[in-house]
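Why does residue order matter? Because the sequence determines the fold. Keep that principle in mind as you read this record.
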Amino acid sequence: MNVKTRIATRPCPDRQTELLRQGGIHPVLARVYAARGLSDPRELASELQALLPPGALMQIDAAAVYLADAIAGGKKMTIVADYDCDGATACATALRGLRAMGARVDYIVPNRFEYGYGLTPEIVALTAREKSPDIIITVDNGIASIDGVEAARQRGIEVVVTDHHLPGDALPDARVIVNPNQPECGFPSKHLAGVGVVFYVLLAVRAELRRRGVFDAASQPKLDSLLDLVALGTVADVVKLDTNNRILVAQGLKRMRQGRMHAGIAALFRVAGREARCASPFDLGFALGPRLNAAGRLEDMSLGIECLVTDDEDRAWAIAQQLNEINLKRREIEAEMQDTALLHLDDFQPQDASTIAVFDDGWHQGVIGIVASRLKEKFYRPTITFAPAGDGWIKGSGRSIAGFHLRDALDLVSKRVPGMIDKFGGHAMAAGLSIRLEHFDTFREAFEAVGRAWLSEAQLERVVETDGPLEDDFYTVQFIELLDSQVWGQGFAPPVFCDEFRVVSQRILKDKHLKLLLERNGRRYDAIWFGNTASLGERARVAFRLDANEYNGVTKVQLLVEHAEPA
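Structure:
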């Protein structure tokens, strides 16, 4: 089963490239940035002064006044967080920031398997029972919690919603809602993560307290100390790294590299075996994020939040080791589930299907999202994997491909087969839902019908986008260091170059990787194609990323092959 893959070169506007070069940008980077839609060196600013001001976020001033009043009045606040890395970092950011401004604030993280997603009436009841707050603040959830907000109001609890998810047809009747994606919000960046929204709310509250004379510029809490948390949540939530998010991430990474980070983040670097002094978005997305997420997937997220809110280094280290253990368990479960999934899809023919929906009664709901992600990578089809959720219900978690808006697709299915989907929500690229087990086949057919209608054959081909050839002079460790010092990530892809090479030699490594020696213009390069064992002909067109490979104290340039085809 092979998905059709082709190599394409991103179009690169000459005029923008030239403007960036004139602005002092390295010639290769100028071309790479222009191909990603930038034309002004100012869009590459990474200092805090360049952040969009909070005022453009709808209702943020009302939120600031309300929370400043609540702090002054000694009101009791409880943060209700989501159970992923964005939710955990948002909770820790809100907790640390509000406490620094004198708030009485605590948090609660419901177990996702018992209480579901968002601020549900059950969670409100639990929060009222355990914390008896005057105010609930949601972070990274709440925009769809109409019943939950109503339940809180009936108990006399006011709700402040901070979220970044897309709203449904109606908004909850909260005291105040801050979400760049709510209707009529004019904030230019719609891509803030939940933790980014909370950080903005804190900036606005601090400004309000300054206006009231509670602090002056010298005595106010230093909110930039929270940027390591903001960077981690932003990268781990895979939101688009637009100019504003890149500033938040760059500032957080800078603090990590300088060793000025919270105890829990330092402990996560250490337990993952990564060096904070050369922290990269890759570390946040693939080393720290998954270890925090594992807690929310298999147990409950309070352990992850505890790691981020403690200032005790020994405690942070002990928790980081626990999180690491949970993550190892998560990886075992995931590997098993993936094997089962491939058995279910044994006779899957990509030419016959535009989508994948698969269920197994032995699966763990906390890990289905990752398995969906792996299957989507392998088959390049929008994929939803389902696990049992008790009482005849099953829960699905989906991942999508470019050009197929998953939440909108579920919306259409729910309109075509009314009553089949109990609830659903999410984004373009990831979404979740609940249905009855007996409706699984009906759902699969309805989902496939949407896939067939929406996706063309060309969209179901995997395209490896490249930045074209790289000049000989830049196959250097120095150039790699320059690339590594930039913030790459979702919606701002790291450079992939493409050229024709002579294949000097090739061998299979550890039964699963192709090790190559490639030659171009008389120069030879080591290369490796992970997860591929099919050999190449004498000449190949290779799409690759540059990597500095250190071996026995010597650092050499190596090419990481993304895809190769006969030249």
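DSSP finds 18 helices and 17 strands in the chain.
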